[in-house]
Amino acid sequence: MDRPIRVLVAKPGLDGHDRGAKVIARALRDAGMEVIYTGLRLTPEQIVQAAIQEDVDVVALSILSGAHGHLLPKVVDLLKKEEVYDEILVLGGGVIPEEDIPELKSKGIAEVFTPGTPTTVTIDFIRENLKRKQ
Amino acid sequence: MAEKEKLEALRMRRQQWDEKTAKSLERFPERKEKFVTGSSEPVERLYTSLDLEDFDENEQLGLPGEYPFTRGVQPTMYRGRFWTMRQYAGFATAEESNKRYKYLLEQGQTGLSVAFDLPTQIGYDSDHALSEGEVGKVGVAIDSLKDMEILFDGIPLDQVSTSMTINAPASVLLAMYIAVAEKQGVSPGQLRGTIQNDILKEYIARGTYIFPVEPSMRLITNIFEYCSKEVPQWNTISISGYHIREAGSSAVQEVAFTLADGMAYVEAAIEAGLEVDSFAPRLSFFFNAHNDLLEEVAKFRAARRIWAKLMKEKYGAKSEKSMMLKFHTQTGGSTLTAQQPDNNIVRVAIQTLAAVLGGTQSLHTNSKDEALALPTEDSVRIALRTQQIVAHESGVAETADPLAGSYYVEDLTNRIEAGAMAYINRITEMGGAPAAIEKGYIQKEIMDSAYEYQKQIEKNERIVVGLNKFQVKEAAPKGLLRVDPSVGEMQKAKLDQLRGERDNQQVSDRLAALKEAAVTEANLMPFILDAVKEYATLGEICGTLREVFGEYQQSVVL
Fold first, then answer.
1. Looking at residues B456-476, what average pLDDT do you find?
2. Is the model's pTM score more than 0.90?
3. Per the record, a Pfam family (chain B) (predicted)?
């Protein structure tokens, strides 16, 4: 396959802080990726539907409301249920305490990017860890 | 020497100084080619009175407590009384939050500020499907008057002023507050406080909208009208630049977009038939304080001057109270770093100085751990102590507007005013803030600034200590505040119990009456108050209004 990396940037739950999501969306776009940003207030079900419809390689979930422990694993579970988890890299970002990260990783979030992470770190991580070969 | 000759002499001298300095620059170059403020405005090497040639102190500054209020809204400023120290707090259940409020009041805090959880802010009960995982997380969960009674238990509402960060369902929470007060024997006329009630910035930057623009503006003007008669000491709106700045705007954009929103509310109320001086004195504002101390001070001063002029000249206000821009400040959450969090105490201290030197009426100082989680009790105390140290030890509160007359600060104030007015005029041409939001114009302008800022940091053009310079290896921070995960279950159980105990016939009658009123042009406040008193839940009331008004569809702007 020879196509740009496709990324869905999504805001799960009721959280309205979208500065980080929009900044990362622009940075990924400037890095040559195709980015779909969903806007606010999506349920995990809607996010998974969008990921499938848009045929993305990466789902990047931004959350600053403290509901990450519930919402991020739920997206992974639904991706598994739809049998697309093996093709899609799932990332988290936002105000997420360090001590919560091991559990999120064990539940299938490949990496979690906390405040202050340079966008280049996320871009490199995506390029190196894609599940689907480009 | 006459003024003109003095100025001419200075000009000559400045010219020589420039030449001399240019020579020494060959040997001792400056640190950078270009110097800019925190908002990327250019900063010159030196400011003198030559930069303020057309400056008219009488016209542009006036005196404290006088038009155009550049120097502050009270004549004696903090010599009379310090600003209200008001820490935004609330999490988990009403019981937990009630404890935190009592703690803060014991520590010398002088006003309350209630943080609600996201389901409450978006008008969903704790047992709604979309509330799962969110209950009690970023604030307290309030489902009905029952929770509100617990939240303010033992806190006499005639003696505190309470600020509530609530927007789309502001009318419902205000009604609950009035009802709790009544049960304490406190009349609405005695209540002091603020509801945020600023829906336009929710569409722009904060995201807790429910209804489309038009019915949202109607609810807001309903509150203006109701409060002007029934709750006259209540600040009916807090027009907020805070979240606009947090979303990444510059200082100029913060002023411009906030005041443009303010203009939209004024116009909506005038349109609805209200007399400008009947509601304008109860409008209040809410700004951010970032690290560029002098730019921030200038921002607050510019905002006061612009608003005063707009209210007088554009909207024909007669009362000086309508022209005064009173504001709350919160220090900048987005300036805090997750790295070396103790450094945040220093940032907050600088921002506190900015707010106080800028003449704020009340202040929330952020806690050092807020880039990581909700603040612990200890870190909240340090944040409050920071205000107390600035108040009692720094000396900056001893005279009104101490930076007035600084060539740099006055020039910055003028430039921020000019920049903001250019934006305001553009937005007016587009049909006002609601139209500009609908087009995504305001969101896009903010996003451009936010992305530019991020790029500056990544290119090391802008240094954030501990983030892109002076880093250390750190262990993961310990002892962060955790919200009890069983809060959601507890709230659900409380709701079940409530629905079993209350008079459900009364509830559905009140909701039906509200629905009927919603399709007319009636003021909805009395109907909401009736429903609240019968223990209709927040979700039921907002759900009823959702049926009539529909929901706002966000225009996604990247």
1. 93
2. yes
3. MM_CoA_mutase
> Encoding tokens for residue B375?
């603040």
**For B454, which of A70, A71, A119 is closest by C-beta distance?**
A119
Taking CA–CA distances from B557, the nearest residue in chain A reads A39
Q: Note every long-range contact of B310-315, with CB atoms under 8 Å and residues 24 or more positions apart, other chains counting.
A: B310/B259, B310/B263, B311/B266, B311/B276, B311/B280, B312/B67, B314/B263, B315/B266, B315/B270, B315/B276, B315/B280
pLDDT at B104: 87
Q: How far is CA B420 from the centre of its chain?
A: 18
Question: Vertex A69, ends A66 and A75: CA angle to 5°?
Answer: 115
Share of chain B above pLDDT 90, in %: 91
pLDDT beyond 70 at B307: yes
Closest-CA residue of B relative to A22 is B558
Q: What is the pLDDT, as a whole number, of residue B224?
A: 95
CA–CA gap between residue A75 and residue A59 (Å, rounded): 9
Closest CA to A28 of A120, A101, A102, A103: A120
Kindly provide the ipTM of the predicted complex, given to two decimals. 0.93
Cβ-contact B480, B372 below 8 angstroms: yes
Cβ proximity of B222 and B523 under 8 Å: yes
Rounded to the nearest angstrom, the minimum Cα separation between B449 and chain A is 10
CA A58 to CA A90: how far, in whole Å?
A: 6
User: CA dist A83 to A79, B148, B324, B488, Å?
Assistant: 6, 45, 60, 31
**pLDDT tens-digit map of A108-122:** 999 999 998 999 999
**β-strand partners of B237:** B283
Give the angle subtended at the CA of A114 by the CAs of A108 and A116, to the nearest 5°.
150
Kindly report, residue by residue over B46-97, the tens digit of the pLDDT. Answer: 999 999 988 999 999 999 999 999 999 999 999 999 999 988 887 889 999 9
Select from B452, B457, B480 the least CA-distant residue to B467.
B457
Q: CA-to-CA distance for B371 and B332, rounded, in angstroms?
A: 11
Q: How many helices (H) and strands (E) does chain B have?
A: 21, 10
The shortest CB-CB distance from B337 to any of A14, A40, A116 is to A116
CA B6 to each of CA B2, B15, B470: distance values in angstroms, whole numbers, following the listed order: 6, 14, 47
| C-beta of residue A42 within 8 angstroms of C-beta of residue A53 | no
3-state secondary structure of B300: helix
B444: CB partners within 8 A, 6+ apart: B557
Confidence (pLDDT) at B83: 96
Alpha-carbon distance of B415 to B409, in angstroms, equals 10
Distance from CA of B558 to the nearest CA of A (A): 6
B206 touches chain A (CB under 8 A): yes
According to DSSP, the β-strands at A89-93 and B88-89 are unpaired
- Minimal CA separation from B556 to chain A, in Å: 6
Q: Is the Cβ–Cβ distance between B109 and B363 less than 8 Å?
A: no
Q: Average pLDDT of A1-13?
A: 90
Beta bridge partners of B93: none
Nearest 5°: the CA angle B84, B344, B39 is 85
Going from the N-terminus, what domains does chain A have, and what CATH number goes with each?
6-122 (3.40.50.280)
